[in-house]
Amino acid sequence: MMYMVTFFYLLSFVFFCLTASAFIAIQKAKIYPPKKVLKNRMALYAVAALLCFLIAWSLR
To answer: The pTM is what?
Structure first.
């Protein structure tokens, strides 16, 4: 069980890093459609990070 908790915490950290990377890339994008795609991707990564964190926290 402890391995699952650790796995979900690590997975949430990875998704958090992907969220931060997408956020930084939004400011570097010059045209609008990639910005829209990056905003959607950032929201998806943030939800996944939150979900994995809540799963790990509830398994604890």
So the answer is: 0.86
**Would you give per-residue pLDDT tens digits along the chain (60 residues)?**
889 999 999 999 999 999 999 999 888 887 767 888 899 999 999 999 999 999 999 998
* DSSP secondary structure letters along 1-60: -HHHHHHHHHHHHHHHHHHHHHHHHHHH--SHHHHHHHHHHHHHHHHHHHHHHHHHHHH-
* Contact (Cβ atoms closer than 8 angstroms) between residue 1 and residue 55: no
What gap in Å lies between CA 33 and CA 44, rounded to an integer?
17
Q: Which domain holds residue 13?
A: 2-59
Number of domains observed in the structure of the chain? 1
Contacts of 36 (CB under 8 A, 6+ apart): none
